[in-house]
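Purpose: get a first structural picture of the assembly so the mutagenesis plan has something to point at.
Setup: three entries, given in the order below. No constraints added.
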Amino acid sequence: MEITDLKEKLKVQIIQFLNLTDLTPADIKDDEPLFGDGLGLDSIDSLELIVLLKREYGINIQDPKEGRKVLIDINTMAAYIQQHAQK
Amino acid sequence: MSFYIHKTTCISPQQTFGDNIDIEQLRPSVDNKLYAVEPAYPQFKGNALRRMSKSTRIGSGAALPLLAGAPQPDGIIIGTQVSGMEENSKFLNQIIEYNEDMLTPGSFVQGTPNTISSQIALISNNKNYNITHVHRGLAFENAVIDVAMLVNESPQNTYLLGGVDEISLNNYTLDTLAGWFKKEDCSNNNLYSSATDGSLSGEGAAMFIVSGDKQGALAQLKAITTIHSTDAEVVENRIKTFLQNNLPEGEKIDLLLSGENGDRRSTHFYKNCEALQGSYTTIARFKHLCGEYPTASSFALWLACNFIGGALELPHHMLKKAGTAIGLKNILIYNTHKIGQHSCMLLSVVS
Amino acid sequence: MGVISAIGLSVAENHAALVTGKTGIIKGGGNFPSRYAGLLPFGEVLIGTEELKTRLGVTESGITRTTLLALHAFKEAIGDAQLTDEQLTAGDTALIGATTVGGMCLTDELYANTHGDTENIEYVKSFDYASVNLYLQKRYHITGVVNTMNTACSSSANAIMYGCRLIKNGLANRVIVGGADSLAKFTVNGFNALRILSDEACAPFDQNRKGLNLGEGAAFLVLEKEADVKGKKMYACLSGYGNANDAYHPSSLSPEGDGPYLAMKNALSNAKLNPADIDFINAHGTGTENNDEVESRAMLSLFGTLPNFASTKGFTGHTLGAASAIEAVYSILNIDKQELYPNLNFGQPIADTGLEPVITYKASAIKHVMSNSFGFGGNCTSLIFSKA
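Result (structure tokens, whole complex):
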């Protein structure tokens, strides 16, 4: 999948998975931080996103600290998925 | 032991919240359920709302307006049977559907029953006493007992007291299997003419600001008792003793708010309680407004506060029997949940 | 007092294990039916559910494992306190219990019932938290105040506190207080999803701790007024309690530990004691990164120089709604036997705080013990037990 398509798909999945009902994919910029000042996600969301990666892309991240390196923004997530996706 | 109620709010299946409270116009049940009318929640900023269970939403949504612009309450005391049962069910279902592999923690965290009291604390930054009572049909009553003790211990303090429960697919299904909800179609406007087992399912959140200070109070919660029995005679005697011990000499119950719920198996408990009152007492029912749920007595207490404070008139659809009472000085709320758990609360005008 | 846990089926058995430092945490070899059974360590009570029913003479349908554990400890407690049938059924006897699992241990059964199985409905009346105490109340015909509390991991500390306040406020003359939780897929998967379960035996207050182990069990205590217990064994006095909310996050504690600090401080002022009066702290000490560090900081800011402290989670695992009640029994044993039990699996202090718990069994003069419990939702409660 092209990286731009992947990013779009990922945004839709994140909105759905985390129930971010007041957002549309267009509201999430590729380089906007997911945590802290950007989207304002928290530690429970990061665990939810790790489950999203497992269920949708077959990616196993065992150590939540490893997850923090991947879950910086849409760019880093998409790049990681391209490299590691099992499905 | 008693306390004074100063302010109260309620999110229920009727129009009971906000500026246009209207209980004259009865909102109908849908598929044997009475769902809460949820307002917009301007207080929940950013991410607060999206992971909240319905219980937490309606509980915090009803509580926060009471806290706005007022000093922090010295405690938050909530009664709920299971609180976020829907979130709980989502998590339980995931366990089976994903065979215990890599589950999402959000619904586990939001499903624990103390989420209501702790979310209110979190949003209002309240680090004081914080507790959740979950004793099914007496969860709210135990919260009331807790608050009565707190006020007795520290009469100058103020507390937030609440009762909250939600309809979830899981508890509706389980309680229907257990025989507590009607299997045939039934509408809330003819609930009391039903002659079958079970009631209609309901939900709601009622919140109260209480203290030992009678200045400016809406009403006084004068006494409460809880009864655990399936024996009608035992229950009747306990109600009789409760009234003897707590009604001042020469006073009678002006209004009985009866928890009658259309379940033919519990009707005789309510009839016995009515029979204790005589022709003086007006008898009214409330379950066709809120449906049956474990903390429904908190909805009745909200009604009673509004009636006794004069904010609302008793609507005709609630009336079972008009008594000769003219004023409204003492209201008795009698409720039974799943037949074995009963409670009486006596609410009186501030003297 | 009555207790059942991974380290024993009675107060005497629990005491023997505490003295000898024998843990109840095992990895594999138990009866708990979860895919994690051989992968993660648990503090399991090694008696099957059916066997428990037989031993306790429970023949009714719809009784959960949580209820059976509660009944086991309840029976021991009322026997130890020599409560008569008349006392149990009297209107001034209250039963206050706590649980965080309750009937939710029936994950598979409830799933079946909510997904089309309308035939096998034995457990549909038992899915909530109250089902545990409702059973005890019916079985023993208790007529006084009956309550169930759930504030996550501090639940049974709040049950003990509520019971004591019922007596102080004249709403009861004796109360039976405690808590119970069984190992459940519900909690195991919940804590696992939060990534706070260790795959090794938990190591509270150790720099390299990896998380907590879940356990199961129950404990009940009988509280009576001093004037009413003439001629009976008096183990200790509940001299203070404090409850506070951390108001920080749904599932983790604030960095400075405001909630834990306030709970401990409120308990001291309720007991009219100074920090220096406390001889020992039974810490919450779950073995998670967050809890142990925050609890250490809160203890340091309140006490300055800490008294002896230890966590018993290395013996039993974290028994959630039962934890505070079980640890109340252990705190009372500290006082009754004048001895301290080790914090198991401790090697190296946490770098930031440098605190070292008690790591060997030892005799010690103990007058006041503080017992801490902190839970999800920021619900924090501390109790203080004193020599009677």
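Chain C is about 35% helix and 20% strand.
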